[in-house]
Structures are given as C-alpha cells and as structure tokens.
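May I ask you for just one protein sequence along with its backbone structure tokens in two labelled lines?

_____
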Amino acid sequence: MTAKRSLWYAFIRGTVKHLFFGLRTGGLRSITESNIPREGAVILAANHLSHLDPPAIGCGTRRQLSFMAKEELFKGIFGKIIASLGAFPVRRGEGDTESIRHSLALLQSGHALLLFPEGTRGDGKRMGPVNRGVAMMAKRTGVPVVPVGVVGSEIVLPRGAKKISRHRITLVYGEPFTFDSVAGGRDGFASELAQRISALCQVNGLDLQPPEES
C-alpha cells in the first residue's frame, strides 16, 4: 500500500463520509469498531442490503479496505475511481478464480478485505445463503473474520429503488473469529458467520433472519 494511495483513499473517504452520508443520508454510526484489528490481514463479512453498503462500511472504519465489485461497474471514470480505492472485479454467477486468487494474495499481504457473503443484495428480511468461497478463504489464510451488521441502508436506498431517502445507517462490528474456532468445517463456519451477522442486525433494530437451512 503506497502513501499516495493511502492519502487518496483518506481524501475520498472523508469527502464521501461528510458530504454524502453526513449531509444527504442522515449520517453513519459505527459501533464497536475496536473489534477490527488495526493491523494485519482481516476479512470483514457483512450483510448486503443496498448499493450503499460498500462505501458506508468503507467510511465507517479507519482501516483501508479492498473489496470485490461486479465487473460491470469497472467502466468509464467511475470504474477508474473505485479501482483506485481498492476495488477489483468479480464475475458473478460463475467460478471466478482470478478474483479468488487476488483476494487470497491481498490477505497474504496483510490487507483488510471486505466481503458480502450473500453475493447479492437481500430483501432485509432473511439473509441469502453464504457463499462457500468466504469459508474457503478463511480456512486457507487463517485470518480473523469480523462479522458486520449493516442497518438502515435498506431504508436509504433499498434494492430496486432509484431515489435516496434520509435515514442514518448503523454499522456494527462483531468480535473476530477464525475458521478453526468453529466446528463443522465449511458448512459450520458459514452457519456461524450468518448467525453472527443476523444477531448484530437484530440487536440494532433490523429483524434480519439467518438463511434457511438447506
């Protein structure tokens, strides 16, 4: 991570946090951000309700984050901007080995990686199934995973909406855990992660249920 990129990231983060979220959407509130390690590799795994979730989480923590974004977004000036902030493309709906390799390389280099285990935006009522790739990365790297509950973005800009409503977005960071601390292999890890994310949301006002058991 270069100093130039860090300064650029900090500038964009501050601008978006204060001018967009602060003035336009009602602000951000971060709870227990101290659960995010200040240094070293870590996965932040959050529920996904809105297009606003990635920038909200990025603005809600002092760690510089890298994150996946659907490849359709990497066009024109917007694509260049998000790439400069640490975003990298993923092809949804198919096995994208390149994005997985890039994710693993970032973690092995000590970066903080933001993931949305559901893979797509939900309805705010029940989480979708947790992608097994998250468990695979947690297993192969052994890095801590911080569950993140996002509450309020489903009001500000829900799935399918074209207009922004004013409401505060709350981001709550749970205690980190590792793949090896959970019994049951990948399925057990995925279930534990979903339960933790769901609980964080429920305690903070969003009755988000974990995925249905298959």
Observations:
- The longest strand covers residues 145-151.
- The chain has seven helices and seven strands.
- The chain has a mean pLDDT of 92.
